[in-house]
Description:
Elements: H1 7-16, H2 21-28, H3 32-40, H4 47-57, E1 79-82, H5 88-109, H6 131-144, H7 155-160, E2 165-169, E3 180-187, E4 190-196, H8 202-218, H9 230-248, H10 263-273, H11 277-286, H12 292-304, H13 324-334, H14 340-347, H15 351-358, H16 366-372
Parallel strand pairs: 2-4
Antiparallel strand pairs: 1-3, 3-4
Helix pairs in contact: 2-3, 6-9, 8-9, 11-12
Amino acid sequence: MTSTVIASRITEAREARAMSMEDLAENIGVTRQSVSKYEKGIVNPSPEILQAISYALSFPTEFFYKTEQKTLAGSSPLFFRSNSNIAKKVKNACKYQIKWTDEIKKQLERYVDFVERDIPTLDKEYEDLTLEDIEELALTIRKAWGLSDDPIDDLIGVLENKGVIVTQFATSDFCTFKGIDAFSCWKDGTPYILYHSIQKSAVRTRFSILHELGHLIMHSSIAEDEAVKKDIVDLADMQADRFAAAFLLPATSFPKDIRSTSLSSLEIVKRKWGAAMSTIIRRCETLDLLTENQINYLKRQMTTRKYWHKEPLDDILTVAAPEMLRDAIYLLVDNKIITPIAFINASGLSPADLKYICGLPDEFFDGFNQRKKPILRVIKTGTN
């Protein structure tokens, strides 16, 4: 922390909430030009203005004094699993979610040894990968990670044990991240996957996380200015989808469970493998497990029963929450190395942001919330 407001933190806080300069200026009662001067460091905001900025953007004032951490090895582009075009302001908000997660990890690394990264690297460029290569890649990683070809119960636990930092990102009144299921990138040699805290279903979450794992493994060499080109994005997403399907439903074992073309039988397969019925149908089509007529019949049945939007078991199946960051924090708290209040203050983030990034329960913030209440006492009494 410094004693001077860090101008870049004002920009960061505003962009993290997907807010324009005009919107912030209106919220705090100043001109857009004033906000621009604060963010460029030309003018230092008064304590009253800083308090207004803090309130408008839902950040503790400590955030604006927190020094930036040095980037060691740079970052890969952000990759998204989404069902729509993503606005630039939303991409910026996602970028900061990764940044904060990385800052928290580095804060904890001063005391905790995290699991060493065990993510394979490719021996060829992503453009040269065939679909058969991707299928083989998924099976090879499964074998290397000791997963055989059985269904994976705790997918997030598997990834955390291989050094992937998996967290949730939170919606808010500022930014709902609508249309984004998950995103990922490498930062300073650490792979990050963040998934939406509000998901349509556990099976969709699992597929989204594996889609992002595919990006981390296959597409880290893509330059940032290339990662926005439609042809490259389309190819990378197709490859990531193929990897996710092959990892989730391996060709060496999954076909044995396809014994019928009824939706009720697919529901049984869904429960066993933790994959959406729509994903199972596409996988059957990819692996030629069913005829074209059988595939079309299943698709018509899905349409008739409106299963493309919501499937059976979607309200029942769950996905285990990330534990690595949360467990590291509690390890330090339980051993009296840090206190919850000290950790929160050092992060500079709001309890709402930390709750999702670190998977912390509401009670973790009880002492912090109580401390923030002003302590008042009577110093003079009198009558009129």
